[in-house]
Design a protein that fits this description.
Elements: E1 26-29, E2 32-35, H1 36-43, H2 48-59, H3 66-97, H4 103-134, H5 145-152
Antiparallel strand pairs: 1-2
Length: about 160
């Protein structure tokens, strides 16, 4: 059994070239050459303390498309920093309510559900950003993108 060619070439397809012809640009990071899409995807990984390193490197790296890389780094820092701050506030509030018998436990149960939903949403948004960055698309997160555009400009 012959499987179809994913590029769409073959008998009866009418195509002469691949579906997506991407020429990924290269970037030199700390002396190593890598694809810009891979490095941009590293900036969006949902690993908060560790993601600061590629974002800081991205803000200080020269490339032929610096505005896209800087936008990704700033957007990632805002997203991760906002999630970290929101998580810290919710954890503090849950700690305060933990001191109240019975009612505090019920409130903490509700806040725990809210925190779980926020964690799942954060992971899903981060993975969407990783996939779109790896495929070469620029995805703007609502409410965060205007600030990322503002702070990533080289002014």
């Amino acid at each position: 059994m012959n499987l179809p060619d994913p590029a769409g070439r073959g008998p009866g397809s009418g195509r002469k070239e691949p579906l997506n012809t991407l020429e990924p640009s290269r970037i030199t990071v700390l002396g190593y050459e890598m694809d810009l899409n891979i490095f941009t995807a590293l900036c969006y990984l949902p690993l908060f303390p560790a993601v600061i390193i590629p974002c800081v490197i991205a803000l200080n790296t020269t490339t032929d498309k610096p505005e896209d890389l800087r936008f990704a780094a700033v957007q990632s820092l805002i997203l991760n920093g906002g999630f970290f701050a929101l998580n810290a506030v919710l954890s503090g509030v849950m700690g305060v309510f933990a001191m109240i018998p019975i009612v505090g436990g019920l409130i903490n149960f509700g806040l725990g559900i809210v925190m779980a939903v926020l964690i799942v949403a954060y992971i899903l948004v981060s993975l969407k950003l990783v996939v779109s960055a790896y495929s070469g698309q620029k995805f703007a997160v609502p409410f965060i993108a205007p600030y990322a555009e503002k702070y990533s400009s080289p002014s």
